[in-house]
Amino acid sequence: MSESNHRTAWIQAEINALQAAGLYNVIRTIDSPMDAWVKIDGRSLLNFCANNYLGLANHPRIRAAAKRAIDTYGVGPGAVRTIAGTMTPHIELEQRLAEFKQAEACITFQSGFTANLATIPALVGKGDVIFSDELNHASIIDGCRLSRAQTVRYAHNDPIDLVRQIEATTEYNRRLIITDGVFSMDGDIAPLDKLMEVAEQYGIMLMVDDAHGEGVLGRGGRGIVDHFGLHGRVDIEVGTLSKAFGVMGGMVCGKQEIVTWLRQRGRPFLFSSALTVPDTAACLEAVNILQESTELIDRLWSNARLFREGMQQLGFNTGFSQTPIVPVMLGEAPLAQAFSRRLFEEGVFAMAIGYPTVPQGKARIRVMNSAAHSHSDIETALDTFEKVGRELGVI
Ligand SMILES: Cc1ncc(COP(=O)(O)O)c(C=O)c1O
Asked: Distance between CA 254 and CA 342 in Å, rounded?
């Protein structure tokens, strides 16, 4: 073995171990637009994997907006925002998002992930404390680590445990509570109203990451703050433009001073180039579509209801789902993988999720409903789940 191969041999050993444990990610290649149906390995499959809640990823108006913007402004932003990368569409998008979300101000980032990496370390640091829901997303966990603040986990969606943890933590400078809005593996909603009461009672900043609530919850898809009527009270609302908005990007909405501070101290804003022009223009068109009508959101919820109720009637366990994310709880990872494989053979693309993304023994198929699906697509999916469920002895 050469010297350089020797130095990296551990990596292949780790990959082999992942494969042996059934934890190696096999990534499918989609050879079509991201839509209700996708082409994989030359076959057309019914797609229940994408976070494309409103079907905007391949919407004709979004495609046209991106093309028009390229003709006017080109493609690349050329630099980080503070140096030369802020263009008219970036500013327009932030103004329109703030207006849509009924927030004082908005700042956009390259993704929801970088929005969290920018925001958390800008708000807290060494000597400070973060209270974080135990099921928060990886980007929140990484943002907490980067901040070097002490992170105290509280039990999932449990304001009573949150209070217990707050009262047990006496050494601190600044304090921040962080929760996902909609939890991406279970589809349940954070009790933001109760968390807000705790935050106000103890004088602690509250941040919600509403990646799966943007375009889904609230009036016209305005998100979890709107869902609970907490405008002007929640300090920091992080969101993504990569899911319901159908494009790519992240955002933070809140008070003007927070957005101004993030423009000075959000490291991915300061040290990584801006969103591309077509992405930005496509996001703007998504805001237009959301502001014009609730048709897509209504269809999303109607599809989700049809699927969830259909699955429950068939005898499947759909966990704690309250949103278009519907987990089909199966228990052990090998069963979930076999189930997903059989669905794939039968023409339905729905991924198995196992440890470490979810706890041991809680493996599932995660079904992402979309407005792009027709009712007949949902009925096809239900028939296929029934067939595979009976075959594998789940129902
Ligand atoms: C709660 C949460 N935050 C952030 C992200 C990351 O968003 P993006 O894909 O825009 O980076 C996700 C996506 O999985 C998420 O579920």
From this structure: 45
Q: What share of the chain is helix, strand, coil (3-state, %, to 5)?
A: 45, 15, 35
Ligand 1 centroid to Cα of residue 7, in Å, is 34
Neighbours of 1 (CB within 10 A): 7
Angle 138-147/112-123 helices, nearest 10 degrees? Answer: 30
pTM of full prediction above 0.90? yes
Tell whether the model's pLDDT for residue 238 goes beyond 90: yes
Contacts of 46 (CB under 8 A, 6+ apart): 36, 37, 347, 348, 349, 373, 377, 380, 381, 384
* pLDDT tens by residue, 148-181: 999 999 999 999 999 999 999 999 999 999 999 9
Q: Supply the residue whose CA is at minimum distance from atom 2 of ligand 1.
A: 211
CB 123 within 8 A of CB 236: yes
| pLDDT, tens digit (0-9, with 9 covering 90-100), for 361-380 | 999 999 999 999 999 999 99
Residues framing ligand 1 (Cβ under 6 A): 111-113, 137, 139, 180, 184, 209, 211-212, 240, 242, 250
Ligand 1 centroid – CA 89 distance (Å): 23
Of 288, 354, 319, the residue nearest 22 (C-alpha): 354
